[in-house]
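hey can u check if this looks right to u? its 278 residues, i copy pasted from the old doc so theres a chance i mangled smth
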Amino acid sequence: MTTTTDPEAYPALNSLFSVAGKTAVVTGGSRGIGAMIARGLALGGAHVVITSRKEEQCRATAEAINAEADAAGTAGRCTPVASDLSSMEGVSRLVSWLYEHLTSVDILVNNAGATWGAPLEEFPLIGWTKVLNTNLVAPFYVITGTLPLLRKASSPDRPARVINIGSVDALATPSWGNYSYSASKAGLHMLTRHLAKQLASDGITVNAISPGPILTDMLGHVAADPEVEGDLLERVPLARYGQADDLIGTVQFLASRAGSYLTGTIIPLDGGISGCAG
């Protein structure tokens, strides 16, 4: 085996983890985890398209990200697209928009999600259909719909990236009655592995991140109740919520040169909940 001491053979760390100049799509990017991801990519110099079913909120998030990118002096931009991915009409509308406005997609983040909680014997059918359509069916058709754009962005040493946002509730049994949510995210994890094998020859990596409790508006009701919050954080070996930097750093790794040899993995970004069980 030959080695080299040529410094040009080893990219600087800021280049290794760079997403500058990339085109990214983040579904459900107007708030919560999706907005964190979109902000991180845009501040890293990527052009980020975010989707949301609420047009005003989507536009407001994009404007806030663009203002921050301008202030930071980065070339990153954020573009809002209103689309409800709980229906096939919404998926088709998004895919059509992408083909009209983009020539390729380097990074696709499937983050849009829904949850539903109810007692076991009262759990309604709508709680299954809505959650499965949003969390599992929509990501599949967004991926297949954008495959030509992903293929255009890929090369042998720099693959295009699909990053699915799963959940710790698909790795460790939840303590509440969100049956369809945990099942849909477990399905998304398996779909990630299946598509990773299928798309490897196309130069597309497919990985998933499974967040534990990250403090967003989705967990606002938990943070407002000290007893409930205490019970939640007792499950976390690191004894804290995940922060935006934790999430952004993991996405940036998967989306950059640093993560180009990784596919079919489920990264448990959960403070040790799934890895330290028992």
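The chain has one domain: 18-267.
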